User: Fold this.
Amino acid sequence: MSILKKITLIITVSFLLTACPSPPCEIKDYGVISQEILDLLPYENQETYSFKHNSGQLVDFSCERYQEEQTFGCYDSHGGVGAKSERDVLRLTATYPAFHINFETNKGMDENDVAHYMITGRIQNSEVFYIPTPAENYSYEILNTITINAHNYTDVYKIPTEHRTDTSVYVDTLYYNTTKGILKLKMSNNEYYDINE
Assistant:
């Protein structure tokens, strides 16, 4: 076979391979996050939430909250199955001391098309924790009642964080209930921030 025929054959095969359409990507719609799940994070957009440091300093957190659509899967030319769902993004931010807590709620579906949710929290982008949802079973200690600043709170989750950076002081444990949200942030140096109502 001559060189000209080989070049023609290579060009023809290359054209046929690139001219074939990619298989379609099937996008499954997981839908929106239920109100029952959104209510597990009892924070409202543009509201302020106050905490008191054990030294007496008040720290105010402003809330930003919104929902957005996210799509994942089917990122290459091989088609397949992807999904889209709603994501709830919530940020609590204090200006002094500079401190932020981020929550992200994601919805997924199992192989039987049963919805499941994951609420992930991050503190200062280093400590990670998970808020319990009805379908997710975390082995958290549940306290019947705790008293903070003369207020009693019931059904409180004691949630350890996964520390992911080399900082010497970090949030070690948070106390959470689904009515008020974060009740207490306990630091690794035994300082703490309590909800201030």
About this structure: The first helix runs from residue 3 to 19.
